[in-house]
Amino acid sequence: MQAYYKQPEGTVDALFVGSSHIFCHINTGVLWDEYGISGFDLAGAEQPFWNSYYFIKEALKTQRPKVIVLDITTPGVRPVDYQPENWLITNTYGLKRSADRYENIKVSSIPDSFKRMLIPLNSTHGRYSDLSEEDFAHYAYSVDFKGFDPRESIVKFERPDVAGVTERGELSDKEDLYLRKIIDYTKSQGVPLLFFSSPYIVTAEEQAKFNTIFDIADEYGVPYIDCNKLYDEIGLDFDNDFAEILHLNRTGNAKLTSYLGGYLKDNFDLSDHRGDPRYSSWDSDARRQRQDDDDFFLTQAAENDDITGYLKQLKNDNYVVFCTTAPGYEGLKDQSVAPYLEELGISQDMLTPLGAFILQKGKCMYESHDYEFKAAINDGRRRMVFYRTLDDKIGHTFTYLRNNGSIDYGSVDYQRVTAYKTYTFENEGISFYVYDTLLDKAVGRYTYNEQ
Fold first, then answer.
1. Rounded to whole angstroms, how far apart are CA atoms 279 and 287?
2. Is the C-alpha dihedral spanning 332, 333, 334, 336 positive or negative?
3. How far lies 429's CA from each of 173, 273, 426, 434, 450, in Å?
């Protein structure tokens, strides 16, 4: 919600509201890249309808979306009228102080805890001893990615089949009430509403609940998409597209979002805003999301010891790559790897013991074959300094230092060090360290050893 407040007023055309099935599944970068749709994932963990109702009320104070897509999965997977307090907090405390915030907390709290929950300090003071740097860090996924927060594991599942489920499950009185309040409120505001059942490993009992919700949709004339009956249309692969039983992973959410974006484009009045400077934040968001995907796939290639896949990913123009060969390096044995190294700027004759290279955009920006060295590269935003020292016992050590700007203390100018990391590699193979200059973060290290 706090990230939503940062959006330029009147720019969110497609608002996605609901549970983690929204913020894990609706890839706002894909929506933009493929359709030019300015979307935002305004969601909370296991969000029930009463929280969605107040999220929508708050959202319409600053935006006038062309469609609101409401996730309906929570009554199926978490059918409770009161969430645990940790989820209650994430679904209420983000709202600015207003009558809607207090009503949201009240309807979410059991009567005995309402007054205590009204004051956040009562719930959060116990964390003081647990605070870490992460509590004060910029949370990229919500702020930069328009609320999108992907899942990354890969788990295989049997494909569920609920096509023949015709039973109706029972909603609680509270679920029924707030679902209808959402419908009535969006109609009163003149904002189209779409019900959305996201794909996951659904059970027949859960599908029966969704059938009841679709009956309510028919009663009011609200359109809906039941993705658990559209696996083939979406193109989901149950061997590769799921992170766990409830959530898609990166490949899965891209497929789902592409399908949903096409549906929204065909059925609602959504403009293509690509090229419009007023929507430049969606363009930069999509670019950062693509880069985040590349970082993930680079890490996956390293974890799988896939050297060709790794070297292909290194061709990314936003990477600065430090490459070093060990003191005992004996040359490249697998000649199939050579063309990929050459595309990065390293020829075979450069691959001698104690080689050190700084690579960017297919060029070798720096080369050394000394035991110890220090080198720097400046891209206009930051100065990156690389060191290497040798130790016969622990291998060769490489230290990376990043400076952003400087601090002027009168006659002395001190560099502001914003990153400092030392890595130790074994005295074998070719080692790589990668820095992502777009997302301003280290992607990690990898050693390719043919021994």
1. 13
2. positive
3. 65, 48, 8, 17, 7
Burial (CB < 10 A; 0-12, 13-18, 19+), residue 215, is exposed
Which residue type, as a one-letter code, is found at position 296?
Answer: F
Please report, for the chain, the start and end positions of each structural domain, with discontinuous segments joined by +: 2-292, 310-448
Question: How long is the chain?
Answer: 451
Mean pLDDT score of the chain, rounded to an integer?
A: 88
pLDDT at residue 359, as a whole number: 93
- Residue 19 CA to residue 5 CA, distance in Å, equals 19
293: CB partners within 8 A, 6+ apart: 250
Burial class (CB in 10 A: 0-12, 13-18, 19+), 173: exposed
Partner residues linked to 422 by β-bridges: 399
Judge whether 406 and 382 are in contact, CB under 8 Å: no
**CATH top-level class for 2-292?**
alpha beta
Give which of 213, 223, 207, 220 is closest to 68, Cα–Cα: 223
Lowest mean pLDDT across 55-64, 103-112, 230-239, 350-359: 350-359
165 close to 207: Cβ distance less than 8 angstroms: yes
Q: Which tokens is 251 given?
A: 């490949």
What's the rounded mean pLDDT across residues 338-342? 95
Q: Are 291 and 438 in contact (CB under 8 A)?
A: yes
What confidence tens digit (pLDDT) does each residue in 286-331 have?
999 999 999 999 999 999 999 999 999 999 999 999 888 877 788 8
Q: Is the pLDDT of residue 97 over 60?
A: yes
- Provide the pLDDT for residue 380: 66
d(CA 146, CA 282): 8
Beta-strand ranges (E) seen in 326-411 are 356-360, 363-368, 373-378, 383-391, 395-409
Residues 6+ apart with CB under 8 A from 391: 397
The amino acid that residue 435 corresponds to is Y
Given a contact cutoff of 8 angstroms between Cβ atoms, the answer to whether 76 and 202 are in contact is yes
Task: Read off the pLDDT of residues 249-258 as tens digits, 9 standing for 90 and up.
Answer: 999 999 999 9
Give the pair of three-digit tokens for residue 72: 């309906």
pLDDT for the residue 402: 47
Q: What is the pLDDT of residue 407?
A: 36
DSSP for 310-347, please give it.
Answer: HHHHTT-TTEEEEEEE-TT------GGGHHHHHHHT--
Query: 196: part of which helix (H) or strand (E)?
Result: strand 193-197
> For residue 19, which of 197, 213, 264, 210 has the smallest C-alpha distance?
197
The widest CA-to-CA distance across the chain, in whole angstroms, is 79
Non-local (6+) Cβ contacts of 237 within 8 A are 251, 252
